[in-house]
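Consider the following assembly input.
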Amino acid sequence: MGEDRFFGSSLTILRRFLFRILAVGPIPNHIAFIMDGNRRYAKKQNLEQGTGHEAGFPALMSMLKYCYELGVKFITVYAFSIDNFKRRPEEVQHVMDLMLEKIEGLLKEESIVNQYGVRVYFVGNLKLLNEPVRVAAEKAMLATANNTNTVLLICVAYTSSDEIVHSIQYSCQEKWDEMQASKVNGACNGEICKQEKECCVLKLVDLEKHMYMGVASDPDILIRSSGEMRLSNFLLWQSANCLLYSPSALWPEIGLRHLVWAVLNFQRNHSYLEKKKKQL
Amino acid sequence: MPALSLHPSYVFSLRSEPLLPDAPSRLLPSVFIFFTRTSRPLRVSTREPDFTEEYRNGVVNGRVAGAGTPGREDPLPEGLRRESMPRHVAVIMDGNRRWARARGMPVGSGYEAGLRSLRRVVELCCRWGIRVLTVFAFSSDNWVRPKVGFLFLFVRDIRVSLIGDSTKLPKALQELIESVEETTKNNSRLHLVVAVSYSGQYDIVQACQSIALKVKDGHIEPEDINESLIEKELQTNIARLSHPDLLIRTSGELRLSNFFLWQLAYTELFFVESHWPDFGEPDFIEALRCFRQRHRRYGGQDP
């Protein structure tokens, strides 16, 4: 027991030292994760069907801890896609129950949220969630609203296409309301005029303002475990210029070395990307 | 200088080599326009084609009959199966300049080599029954590049379309592009979509702007806006299969660079270390083999 503790402390010291070295170069501001491979891991380890997601949770906690220690400010995880509702009802229910349990765990004293001062957002079409999970999510967002150190965005009932549709619906509604208001107060007399054209045109900033992910900057790195290289309708808009990395490890097997590799690659390309941004 | 004409009996060529190993080298109408930042066409030469009589008779309605009949597909290389071939492949043709610099050659040679690579890939797509090939020449973000090259192929029953912003191109070239699109619109063997000054984010924004105008004019309510409405307004709607099954990017860059964002929701991504001019049949076969092994679940059950 004493030996384990000594070994654990030594690893922590080594890890912090490694992060100090990495921090000499630029550190990504925002890392996104697609946690793929839980079910395959359960099959591989001959675990009971449906328990892969439980095996994936410690991996998530470790990655959050490493990222926050490294100095990453925003972390986004793809917890549950709208497409995942197509799975077997028992599996969907199992994941919902697990999420409820873990959300309640996040609010406990000893959780990572309090350790690192994490503000939590639940990002997605929350109306599609069952009531207990939705209520717990809203409670967690409220409880952590004053935390300012780091941010955790958990994408549930989320797809990028749904996010964009939602954004344009809200933007159109907002523009419509603005138009009506300016007609009422006489600023715009309803006929086609220069002002009307200007205020009615939808712009990129309008869309971005209404995106679920509008609370964070774009990710610098997107990591998908299990070696599959596709986005699966995750952060399509926001990943226009981010580094994509797909280690072959299944999500429960993901570790520090994968994070370090991703950050090193990010640092290698960083100066080239900054130069390109200045050119634009 | 003769007017640029798309009459099939005129051939503009800087290089004529057979696309198909069995086709005589003179049976190759191809239009290659290569121009610099000053927007001056570089040595566009015209000459009467050296066609044989039978080839001349084979030109019907702007279509040139190639060695194979439209729709005929060659047997696939080992390891590939027709049922697991992608129907739409997209390519980010990256690395022409780095390829040239590594060889101490001028950048123009890199683009020429890149065009040869493109012709190889187009030919392979025709042979293996891929229906749509989208190629990303450069995005609006990369307009600072000094030279751009275009390749229009109207052999082998290929339909050519352009997406993106062509307004920055010279007027004569814009007219030529429109002419090529019109001439080849009924070709059906392969749909070659060339993305020029294309930005994925801008495509989504312009689609949303069109929809917003419809809302403003009262044709639709905000609640009616859905994914298929957005699909119809995207520039990629010209292709029947607008979402690529497979995206290949050369040169080892692991990013999308604002190309095809909405359309890549479920696309398999394949990144290759070699530069575009070196991308050949073995690399393409490797990409297709990897594609075959990917398990596409679309978020649902395991098959």
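The radius of gyration of chain A is 22 Å. Ask yourself how this observation constrains the way the partners meet.
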